[in-house]
């Protein structure tokens, strides 16, 4: 069933074919690839996090990466529950380094991890002590004691980092509208040093003579009589605060800090709203003296959350747009209080109200409440990282086979419930996620396709840092054949499956399919024909790679067929696909689906098209309107 390259047919299907990696082209440039229906190829980063999520990425840094890597559209998909601050920590009483849970609804216990730097003299250290403790703390008994002495006049620190586990990252959020209050007690007798509350915040690009990098705020508590002040030392802000006892009877001093105000004053060239509370460390710091003191009763005071944060992000988009004019921003949302996570793409997004939703009822809540709301608003839902969001090492093949069967069984329709909770898209473009490789991510998608579950596959990075998209291990993006980068046109392309996905560093070409001149990639055709003609477009193939055509039977195997049934029915070296397309005759005596993929000389999947379904009879669940021909 192999065929030679069909230059003439390929030229008809692709009026403009870029055959090499080129710099970014204007969105309506005549040099952009244009397919037979007149739509153009636009690249999209469809799962990206910023300072509204839990790590060091900023909107600024992510937009810089999109511009640098010639990605046309960036979809913001920050976590809704982090914008909401659900189960976030309000207070820390310092009763334990490992087990203190805080009050009701304040997440899991923290694990304060030792943080040391510089050359410390014997006797430096710290921990939780019963006394002294702040009389202002309603939970009596407990404070964090810290001692540090440098062996020279060079700075040395001993402290603890608030190392919350991912399931309980219950202080990591955007800093706007937030203040922290903490009680501090300084032992007398030292000058050369300070107690420190260090906030690690977001990564930003080079600005105003500063290098690109993570920003931080060092709040340095010194004895009474010291000089208060603030200064920016490159990407670190230093705020010196003399601690005055609250009263003659109470030697503890209560200090409140407002990081966003300090950021605005220290780095006025940056948007102070684009900074996260990412890391929190408490330390004693010495430049020669024996520095000793105590921290107690830490309070987080948040005045902005939920929809207000979502609206703030939209306002920040407008401020950043002139700085990155080549990138179109689209605001989306990751609905993610528990697993599974869904991305909401579309207009009129509203943060869900979770009420009494629990881990046990979350899937039903997504299926019965969230997905219908997404569809009612004119949007699309994506089922995210279907195997999970962790990054352990690659699992054994037997384990991946077992996970494929388990997850496929969960996603298939059953008992009147829709497939994949009713989602429209499925994240398939992960080179490795939760120990599961790209082959098994795509195999899960193929299981859906063999059951006539029409899901658009998309490729993503789920990046939270914004430092090097090109070099990420999971660096997939999605391209769409669309009329424009407008929201309506992009949603229409995704709903119709008019898209493909691939590695940002491995494939920069285009993929498309057209059957019998009338059935495009993503569509579903019902016909009694037993033989049909496929034109598969593939431009920009890397040297030595292959374009493969795969076919799988649509056999509605359901729970009895929890593995992919696709087979390669055509394989073409890049050197053969010189005209940008190949033609191949397809046996359609039985219902099937087709897709194409690009593989490296080593057999690694670099890109995949969306399927086209060629059925002998109508599917039981009908054909979605965007996929009808």
Relevant terms:
disordered N terminus, elongated, 7-stranded mixed β-sheet, alpha+beta, 11-stranded mixed β-sheet
Structure commentary:
Helix 7 (397-411) runs parallel beside helix 8 (438-450). This protein is an alpha+beta fold. It is elongated and about 95 Å long. Strand 3 (40-48), helix 2 and strand 4 form a beta-alpha-beta unit. It is built from nine helices and 39 strands.
Strand-pairing-aware structural class:
alpha+beta
* Uncertain stretches of 5 or more adjacent residues: 1-22
Q: Please, how many helices?
A: 9
What would the average pLDDT be, to the nearest integer? 94
Q: What spatial form do the alpha-carbon principal axes imply?
A: elongated
Main sheet attributes: strand count, strand direction, barrel closure: 11 strands, mixed
Distance between the termini: 25 Å
The proportion of strand residues reads 25-35%
| Overall strand count | 39
Helical content (DSSP H or I, runs of 4+): 10-25%
Radius of gyration over C-alpha positions, nearest whole angstrom: 28 Å
Summarize, please:
With 629 residues, the chain is α+β, with helices and mostly antiparallel strands. Helix content is 15%, strand content 34%.
Ordered list of secondary-structure elements with their pairings:
Layout: H1 7-13, E1 14-16, E2 34-35, E3 40-48, H2 59-68, E4 73-76, H3 80-84, E5 91-92, E6 112-117, E7 125-129, E8 143-149, E9 156-162, E10 173-174, E11 178-186, E12 193-204, E13 213-222, E14 229-233, E15 236-242, E16 253-257, H4 259-266, E17 276-277, E18 279-286, E19 290-302, H5 307-320, E20 328-331, E21 333-335, E22 342-345, H6 362-376, E23 380-383, H7 397-411, E24 425-429, E25 432-433, E26 436-437, H8 438-450, E27 456-459, E28 476-482, H9 487-495, E29 499-503, E30 510-515, E31 519-520, E32 524-526, E33 531-539, E34 546-553, E35 567-573, E36 581-587, E37 592-599, E38 605-609, E39 612-615
Parallel strand pairs: 3-4, 4-20, 13-15, 23-24, 24-27, 32-39
Antiparallel strand pairs: 1-2, 3-28, 5-19, 6-9, 7-8, 8-19, 9-18, 10-17, 11-16, 11-19, 12-13, 12-18, 14-15, 21-22, 22-23, 25-26, 28-29, 29-38, 30-31, 30-33, 33-36, 34-35, 34-37, 37-38, 37-39
Helix pairs in contact: 7-8
